[in-house]
Model the fold of this input.
Amino acid sequence: MTFTLILEPADTFIVRDGTPFNQNDTGQARAHSVFPPSPDTLYGAARVALARSFGWSGEGDWGKPVNYPSSKDPEGCARTCLAALGSWNKGSAAQFCGPFLVKRGHDGAWAPLFPAPLHLRRITSASGKDASRLVALKPDDGPGLDTDMGLARLLVPQAGEDEEEHDLVGCYLSEKLFTSVLSDVSRPDERNGVYAETDIVVDERRVGLARDTENRVYEHGALYATARKRFREGMALAVEVAGLDGPGGDLPKAVPLGGEGRFAFVSLVPSSLLAPTPLRRAKRYFVTFLTPALLTGELKPESAVAGLPGRLVCAALGRSQLQGGFSAQKDRRGGIMRGVAFPVGSVLFMQLDEESELPQSGLLDSKEETQSIGYGRFAIGVW
Done:
């Protein structure tokens, strides 16, 4: 069974990046929040919500019966929870995937928003009089440009002499518009289908000052600032869960999310919100990432990409990001480094020797551990 957990932050939230944060340092006294949160953050929140549904108290190891005080059969609940979610230190066969962004419709149903592929452009007239349009750039059909990595085929600009080309970095698309991009069909500029980050969240900056609790005066070097995010009305985060029959019982009303003791309300959609892309036959296709991808191998023109059929022709990659995580194992408890990831929306253009049937979607990652957390989810389109 596949179901979806919806997480609606109750207030502002902050998910720190790797920037040092020290109150007594004027250059490091500001805490930044990343958006969207990493798969590790949503993986932890989803596991906590599901463990609570099995009767776990929210404190201590959910594999120990003593932490099920309200249950009539604490040993049975602990065994069931362990079988579904694995131990606190190690996951199970369940597959978590996220974060995804969702938007509530007028009927109250949640609909997914997809990261705009990085080869998508908005073309506008320089005068601003003519209507804009959306185009998907494609690799040059020529032999390519001679580089230090070999012959490389570049994306061909589509703007005319009196036109300007704008990228959609950080934007999200409605399901209808995203499907048209995957299908390589002509499309108008559907302004209602493109969402900038500011349409989804807004920044809220706050300044704090620690005080001495005894004499109630400020402490030297205790001034700090945080840059938090607040979701706009009707927007939320989602995590897809596969390999389980569902929650063990009623979900908790809220779970912790991010730092500073913030939390999010939890609700359940008993199905996947990510409709699979139609299965098709093609000789050329592209992969666009819906969650960050941790790839350890080299990406070179005309080379193979592990897990994908064919050879790499071209790529539209966002700025790589360092992805951190958390380990609960005793010998390395605390923050860990997952590796360097390509951000959502990154695109790999692939070519086959002959027309073949393409997979609908999948996971592309170097480690089984991070696949189960949700890294490397992709959708496939044609070009």
Q: What stands out?
A: Helices lie at 39-53, 74-85, 175-183, 197-200, 368-373. The first strand starts at residue 2 and ends at 9. The longest helix spans residues 39-53. The two ends are 33 Å apart (CA to CA).
